[in-house]
C-alpha cells in the first residue's frame, strides 16, 4: 500500500488507511440510524448577493448533522459517506423535505439546493421534487439546483436529459465548484446549465496572484459568452469582491457577506457596504 517498501512506511500507511476506513464505517452505521430520526439533521442558509448592488439574490441550503453518538460531522464527510454507501437518495429526500418546509416559511426568498449527482440520476428524484412542489405550493422559479462536475461528465446523456426536464419544470441549474473538474467547453455549451459557480480555490488566491485576476476575467467572459450566469464562491474580503465584480461576476457568496446561518436570521436587506447581518462589511473584515 506504499510506494516505498521499507517496512515501517507500509505499517504506518496501512494503519492510517485502517483508521480512516473504520471511521467511515462508524459514520455509515450512525447515518443509517440517523435517517430514521431526522431531527439530527438541520439546514443552514448562506446568502448569495448581487455583485453590483450587494442586495440579497438567493440563499444556498447547507446541511448540518449533529450525530447523537459521534457529535457534529462535516457535510463534506457525511455526504461522501452517504454517496458511497447508497444512503444518499434517502438522505437527500429527507433534506429536501426540510428545505421545502423552510421555503414555505420564507416565500420572499429564492433557494439554491445542493443535489448529489447520484440523487439526480435516481428514478425517484423528479417525481419526489414534483410532489414536494405541489404539497408545499412552491413556485419552481424559486429553486436553483446545484450539481458538482464529477459524475456528470461520465453520465453525460442521462444527466442532460434530467437537466432538460428540470428546465422544463421551470427550475434553474448551476454547476458547483466550477474549475475543479474536467468540463470541456463543448460540454458546458451542450449542458442545459444556467449558472456557473466558480470554486473558492480561485477566489482565495486573488490576494497574492496578479495573473489570477486575468485568468478569472477569461473564465467569466467565456461563461458569459455561453450565456451563463456567474457566481463566485468563498468571497472573504472586500478586495476579492471588488475584483470579482470588475471581471463580470453577477453574484457573490462568502463569509464577507455572511456565514451559513439559521433561516430566521437571514435578513432581506443588504447593500451600502453593509453586510446582511446589518453591520458594515469593513467592520466584519477587521474582526476576521
Ligand atoms: P458547496 O456546495 O460548494 O458549498 C460551499 C461551501 O463553502 C460550504 O461548506 C460553505 O459553508 C463554504 N463557504 C462559504 N463561504 C465561504 C468562505 O468565504 N470561505 C470558506 N473557507 N468557506 C466558505 P459546507 O457547508 O461545509 O459544505 C460543504 C459541501 O458539502 C458543499 O459544498 C456541498 O458540496 C456539500 N453539501 C452541503 N449541504 C449539502 C446538501 O444538502 N446536499 C448535498 N448533496 N451536498 C451538500
Ligand atoms: Mg453548493
Ligand atoms: Mg461550491
Ligand atoms: Mg464544495
UniProtKB/TrEMBL annotation:
UniProt KW keywords: Membrane, Transmembrane, Transmembrane helix
Keyword Membrane: yes
Keyword Mitochondrion: no
Domain of life per record: Bacteria
One annotated GO molecular function: cyclic-guanylate-specific phosphodiesterase activity
Sequence ranges assigned to domain EAL in this UniProt record: 24-274
UniProt-recorded name of the protein: Bifunctional diguanylate cyclase/phosphodiesterase
